[in-house]
Write a structure and sequence with these properties.
Shape: extended
Order of helices and strands: HHHEEEHH
Structural class: alpha+beta
Number of strands: 3
Radius of gyration: 21 Å
Largest sheet: 3 strands, antiparallel
Strand order of the largest sheet: 1-2-3
Strand content: 5-15%
Helix content: 25-40%
Distance between the termini: 51 Å
Length: about 150
């Protein structure tokens, strides 16, 4: 006699907006979000000059070694857990996610707190120049990091 697989009730709250992904498509147990990028310099040190490191550098993960560890304090596991539990709601520039059946807001103010960037409203009378011309060669860094512009 086989035991049926254990079903875990994710506790979907029908009062919340619909989720971006199905409720059975993310971990329901405790998350280990305590990963950090400090391991990257260690891996670089140990594998430098080896074919294995060359393989990693040529893979999609190769760009991770271009990011200074001290500038990447946010856990990718935490970001993934936010996105996989994302709720579909307005305003569109605010991320709402559900943890433990409760909604959690992650907007521009919270982004500023986490990143340290100045996300306050623009001063009164400020009008950004939205018609700036593109200077040839100015964005070479971005082209090198993420490739040339592509239509998605």
């Amino acid at each position: 006699q086989q035991t049926p697989p254990t079903q875990i009730d994710v506790g979907e709250d029908l009062r919340l907006p619909p989720r971006l992904f199905a409720t059975d498509r993310f971990p329901v147990r405790r998350l280990n979000i305590y990963s950090s990028p400090e391991i990257l310099p260690f891996i670089r040190h140990v594998l430098r000059g080896t074919p294995e490191f060359d393989t990693i550098r040529q893979s999609p993960f190769g760009k991770l070694f271009d990011i200074p560890a001290r500038q990447a304090p946010v856990s990718c596991k935490m970001i993934h857990s936010f996105l996989s539990r994302q709720l579909l709601c307005l305003p569109e520039h605010t991320l709402w996610t559900a943890f433990g059946g409760k909604p959690l807001r992650y907007g521009l103010q919270e982004f500023g707190t986490v990143t340290g960037l100045d996300c306050r409203p623009f001063p009164e009378g400020y009008h950004p120049d939205i018609a700036k011309s593109v200077v040839p060669g100015k964005d070479n860094v971005w082209k090198r990091v993420i490739g040339k512009k592509k239509t998605i």
